[in-house]
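Researcher: Batch entry, complex prediction.
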Amino acid sequence: MTSHIEHGINTIEFGHPQSNSMPGKLLEHLAKEIHHAGTHEETKVIILKSAGDKAFCSGASFDELASINTTHEGTHFFSGFAHVINAMRHCPKFIIGRIQGKCVGGGVGLASAVDYAIATNKAEIKLSELAIGIGPFVVGPAVERKIGTAAFSALAIDATTWRSTDWARRKGLFAEVHDSVEGMDESIYRLANTLSHSSPEAMAAMKKIFWRGTEHWDELLKERAAISGKLVTSEFTKQAIAKFKAKS
Amino acid sequence: MTSHIEHGINTIEFGHPQSNSMPGKLLEHLAKEIHHAGTHEETKVIILKSAGDKAFCSGASFDELASINTTHEGTHFFSGFAHVINAMRHCPKFIIGRIQGKCVGGGVGLASAVDYAIATNKAEIKLSELAIGIGPFVVGPAVERKIGTAAFSALAIDATTWRSTDWARRKGLFAEVHDSVEGMDESIYRLANTLSHSSPEAMAAMKKIFWRGTEHWDELLKERAAISGKLVTSEFTKQAIAKFKAKS
Amino acid sequence: MTSHIEHGINTIEFGHPQSNSMPGKLLEHLAKEIHHAGTHEETKVIILKSAGDKAFCSGASFDELASINTTHEGTHFFSGFAHVINAMRHCPKFIIGRIQGKCVGGGVGLASAVDYAIATNKAEIKLSELAIGIGPFVVGPAVERKIGTAAFSALAIDATTWRSTDWARRKGLFAEVHDSVEGMDESIYRLANTLSHSSPEAMAAMKKIFWRGTEHWDELLKERAAISGKLVTSEFTKQAIAKFKAKS
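Model: Structure tokens for the complex:
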């Protein structure tokens, strides 16, 4: 996790050697960093990016999922995603997402919870939760808010099929898709630069109306974490994760 | 109406010689069959299909509409669609829709209420209710949930224009569109087979969150049936149906 | 402002020499005209159009924005858009929008609040409010209802980029886009003519269900006008408007 600020633009970068998958510790740090950027006076706009030029984020860490033995531990782990999404939602500043590659599971949730996602055409997406006996319960509200009920259901039910970047753009997950990393970065810079010179009062008021109707998510996402937390301890999930780990 | 189950996949087929239009009796049987499949332990996933290789469903039976003389009879008839949609909504298992051809009126409602619709490129759609002096009141909530307010309004206002399968796919009504019946059936088999081996607990929990916010539909769709039930007894509707029947 | 009725089709036309921008007086007249058409017995369907062959509507009048000195005055001015949108929403008749050209700011709001928008491929759109230190607060609910949260946010955040007519059609703002003014007018005539012969009872009931869930907008849009009314008096906005006026 690094974060640096320049000319009012706060760039937060997370990373993990396993395709930017998220263990609990990383989720915790990310939520804190976003919360901090939201209250930091010099910060006018935030860019959320991840390390490397492959996956943007491959979701929950399989190592950590495999180590969960009780519903309590499971709920605690999935609450990590809830905290990050709620931090993004509460943050009074716009968050631009830099989506350089694939998004899986919780990674689709992070890409959904930014205010403006700019991607490359390598950014295919998949909600693969059902394949390991759980479901996109915690990230669901953020994904559904962005792409609608129909696209969210389809994505979650057909858990083994990659959806193209073009699909994600048409459904509204990505505001822009670029053919190259350079094109993406140029557009991110243009927008971040403009926003860093825009009225902070107007942007804070806009952020609030964009997220109107989600005031209950502090509670809702906790409830959702409990659903995932229970399912993840099932025999079905244990075996599915063991198989995936054996393959990779 | 037939229904058979194989390897956890419960295939429900309805049919009617007049382009798979729906008289009240057929709607009643369909609602019961779906309810039954939802409680049937061997059933892991449901495929909803219709007979023949032409229309998927052409909506309300014109013969039956023409025979309605009172608001009470009208409300009773339209409640048939309400019961089917509510049965699909309450069913704790995913329903895959096999949409081989045109959908009209209530047929668009059935296609909307499945959890994952797979169609061929022959599946054009039309909400033709207004052309006979009624409106898509009962199926409206299901259609709007799937394709959004804008597309639903446009479809219902321009009641005489067919919308292409591609339009329906882009708006989210169909999750997939295939160039051939074989392609459609292959994809349905692939998905149904995968789901029949997926965690029933996870799927039941997902079904619930997909339909979150529709808990009032038991009441709402009844109220909607009463609106259609009243309009269908108007002189406008009587004459429009007579004209349509004379043409065909 | 002119309005004429022929064969049940009530055509309301507004206009302003500066790219059909809207001063408070014009908004007031437009709201009254729409209200009148809604209660006028001969009127079966309404066409909303604007003068000329260039912009459909370029939003709030910059001259009037520049003259606002107090939050009270600002709130009063933005309430003008609230009244027009609420008049369209309450109107029991379908409103077809004739969108011949560009829509900016409040103009996107008007295009969103019609029930069925038919445009030409010249009708690019932009929500430019943030560029002058305010935001699309009053028109926001109407735009979001039509194109969804994701598209609305993207449009409002990237306040300086024109979105193409094709983008607007795909997002649901325009039900149809035509290559020529003739094509647009032909389609408008076809639909208006059909609706003028459709059941007024059915259409009034449909209008009601299309706008279900917006019953609180009388209050909501007033609150939104107060947000814009306060922001517009800021030093940021004063300077931004002065710059824009100097350029043009």
